[in-house]
Amino acid sequence: MMNAPRSVLWKFGPLAIAAVVAIADRLTKIAIQHRMSPLDALPVIPGWLRIIHTENPGAAFGMLADGNPWLRSGILVGVSGLVLVFVAFGLWSGKSSFTSALTRFALALILGGALGNLYDRIVHGTVTDFIEVYRGGWSFPAFNVADSAITVGAILLMFDLALPGRKHARQPARLAEKR
Q1: Does some domain include residue 163?
Q2: Tens-place pLDDT, residues 54-108
Q3: Which helix (H) or strand (E) holds 2?
Q4: How many domains does the chain contain in total?
Q5: Active-site positions?
């Protein structure tokens, strides 16, 4: 049987992580919006990394940016909402697929990032992006803290799902006791 402190941490820890990600995302976007004009750039590592204020009306990498604004907003808010429901279900369901600590951490990062970007889409209609990696004439599309959390969470989730023996080694104590 899981003890009470672990149970509380197990249940609410991912929510705390998601909240930290969403708050960090919001605070960094507010700082950029108030301190930089759109398309202002501040080199961090000249020739490689800069802070640039952009407003992205589309999805990742600017996809859907040129489409009908109502349709675009509906699709992006709807997809984000579905992701939030799926991730929340995964964290709260207690299903054996979501009992790995790494899976729960990954889902918490995804949840926090999705909340951060969903807030922007609903309130502002765009997402503030400000981190740009570039070299010469090439640049990776600007991104933000929420995007980073979603990406890292997705990579960790894929890594955890690919681990051999994951199914048996990661069962919660209450399932292991029933054997």
Answers
A1: yes
A2: 998 766 555 555 566 556 566 667 777 787 787 777 777 666 566 788 989 999 9
A3: none
A4: 1
A5: 129, 147
